[in-house]
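**Sequence with structure:**
===
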Amino acid sequence: MKSFLKLIRWNNLLIIAFSQYLVRYFLIENATISIWLDWRFAILVLSTVFIAAGGYIINDYFDVKIDQINKPNEVFVGRIIKRRYALLTHQIFSGIGVLMALLLGWRILLINVFSVSILWFYASIFKKKPFSGNLIVALLTALSISEIALYYEPNRIIIHVYALFAFFINLVREIIKDLEDMKGDAAHGSKTLPIYFGIRKTKQIIYLLLILFVTAVVILINKLGNLNLWICFGILGILLMLMVYKLILADRKSHFGQLSQICKIIMLLGVASIVFV
């Protein structure tokens, strides 16, 4: 059971669910304490969690050989959990996520079908391609937030600000993880950004993405005129500058591992800031 929980990244699934509940309770105007009795929203969260869990499983299913080099102590498929059982569990979890969406309307159904489909192609094809795999993960992370606005209040801009934040931070983190995993990726023919362009140019791409991120967020926050949002993202901006400083100096696997953790901390603090806006 412990190995299975690690396989589906139970801690990441909790973060996904917690983030969605924060968005629902603090950013949807008509949300009340009855959120805990809102069975439709509970189904939305559960469907997202099941699809994400299935995505983690299929990712590890295709990445066994690479993970044996990059993170040998975290290889579960084929060693502890048989490959056919892993594939079956992925299909069951993904199927449950799609079936749940039938109760939530065509928008959520389309999002879930798209998510399940693109996760398969990501794990089997796009993860080994430059940038496209990173883009897919970031897009799906942002969708887990934006779908709440699409379901409840499509014009709620502040939710999309947080979705944009999740998109860029996860995009940067995925590229940094590729820097960390260069050895295993190169050994099995992956053409990730660092392998395709080299470390120096990949860093330049990250700098460009961060500039685009800051510019987009400033424009949206200025449109909203929310002082608390300015303060929260200003604090996160300090952490971003720290990350950029460490990225400039980074040249080892351990350095990129630390940067990945910093990205995760920024993401968690960004989600937590929802409480104050």
About this structure: The chain has a mean pLDDT of 88. The radius of gyration is 19 Å.
